[in-house]
Structure prediction request, 416 residues.
Amino acid sequence: MYQKTHLENGVRIVTEKIPYVRTVSVGIWVDVGSRDEHEEDNGSAHFVEHMLFKGTKKRSARRIAMELDVLGGMSNAFTSRELTCFYATIIDSNLHRLVDLFIDMFLDSRFDPEEVTREQQVILQEISMVDDTPDDLIHDLFSSELWGDHSLGRTVLGTRGVVGSMDSARLREFIGRLYTPERILIAAAGNVDHDHFVRMWEERFGKLSRISGEKDIRTKPAEHPPSHTLVKRPLEQVHTILGTYGLPIDSEERYKLILLNIILGGNMSSRLFQEVREKRGLAYSIYSYLDSYIDAGCLAIYMGVGPAFFHEATNLVVSEVERLTAEAVLEKELANAKDYAKGGLLLASENMEARMTRIARNEFCFGRYFSFDEVAEDIDRVTRQEVTELAGKIFSRKLTRAVLGPVSEDKLGRKE
Prediction:
């Protein structure tokens, strides 16, 4: 059973009670990500995420880590371009202990200058790790090329210059501007009583000031002409992403796009996986994926191939994209994609973390709960013609590309 409560200051609390399980997943979500940053504070949201684990007035960083480890489950946090989340899944009898710990971390973290300096080095190492991982780095290169100088084109981790100059005062100022009550959502799924759960949070979170922080700086990104970027590196493979603009996350055509993506490169029976990997052996890793935001999105294709196969594989990807726009998908192909999508939905329904994440994202994106049956019915309503028409709209322009590896500019080659 799904329930929602608004505290008087704007903080939202949503729960989904699953009485037959003995676990509960809890997340504190903040409607803040890297797209809410200015260029001069890029990486702040991610830095704040790290610092909330680094000590409070009554708990050291070590004690926080130990308490999280002994609660009987797992915990983590992440920062994306639009959201930050701190979450844990535990046995239900430890819920009160987790809530006490999360409240302390979220509201009373110290941001000790020594800890900030130490964590700077950790994040700089994280940035270096991405730089040394080409199948991660290529995604940042593609985002920068697709979105240009818009905040969506910046990395979540931030730049070395900004991270290296960060201090406690700037992080606190960032929180003061953006971690305001109307941006905060607390979600839980599992064996949880909604009214009791609300009472556990409302005394502290209900006292947060309603005074608005910084005015929303999110602006809709512009769509740029197709382009390409090349970063030469002496790697064993060429890593490349080809993509274009997609749909915002709340688009009425979102289920058509999900099915289109599955058919194109979303699983092992997809066209790209079968044509590029299985039939020709040109790549080990090839897939398509969707990134969707509140006002924009993209559909992109990643592959890592040997330099000798780069041109052949790229031309084959473009041919498959063109075929998707020119020929209607087969009835069986669409039926299989629908079964795959609904199967993933039902599998996720048995995971409390996935359910907690789902109700939180639904609240942020739609302001309401979607039942699993409702989503399945919407998926089933999609027709072959609708998928083909959407493919024609999405791929009406040539693809933007990012390339990383041992390829010369004059040897890029494009099938146009």
About this structure: The radius of gyration is 23 Å. The chain is about 45% helix and 20% strand. The chain has two domains: 2-205, 228-411. The first strand starts at residue 2 and ends at 6.
